[in-house]
Amino acid sequence: MAHYTAEVLWLRNDGDFLGNHYSRRHLLRFDGGLQVPGSSSPHVVPLPMSDASALDPEEAFVASLSSCHMLWFLSIAAKRKFCVDRYFDAATGIMDRNADGKMAMTVVTLRPDVAFSGERLPTREELDRLHHEAHEACFIANSVKTEVRCEPVYPA
């Protein structure tokens, strides 16, 4: 069993808190020392109360699914002796009402574009299998109800 921590710090500063006109900007701190500016999404709370340059929870959610999938993909590819040179994913998430009528991230679509080198290159079927196994192993995908799709970009 592993234990993970994150600290979230928000300060009111000059906002009109009781009038619901206050900054949603905050700080996310992680156990390795990384500090990331956070905010609500401008799609949820309008500017200037949100900060579009900061990480919002919805973006972090999509990024965590993409990152977890990538890390598993790289591990599985290395074990299968496929040399990965580059992995790029333009992942997206859709916020919509779920089956219970609540707003939720209903679909996250990963679009990994992977470049390989060396004598051993995966076939399209092997690439599909690598992505399937990465998805099955991903801790984050296994932790959410959101539909997670993987639509790899295939070399021409």
Descriptive notes:
The structure is a single chain. By secondary structure, the protein is of the alpha+beta class. The chain folds into two domains: 55 residues, no CATH class; 94 residues, GMP Synthetase, Chain A, domain 3 (2-Layer Sandwich). Helices cover 24% and strands 28% of the residues. It is built from two helices and eight strands. The strands form three sheets. Strands 1-2-3 form a three-stranded antiparallel sheet, with no helix packed on it. Strands 5-6-8 form a three-stranded mixed sheet. A hairpin with a 5-residue loop joins strand 5 and strand 6. Helix 1 packs across helix 2. It is elongated and about 65 Å long. The N and C termini lie far apart (43 Å). The mean pLDDT is 96.
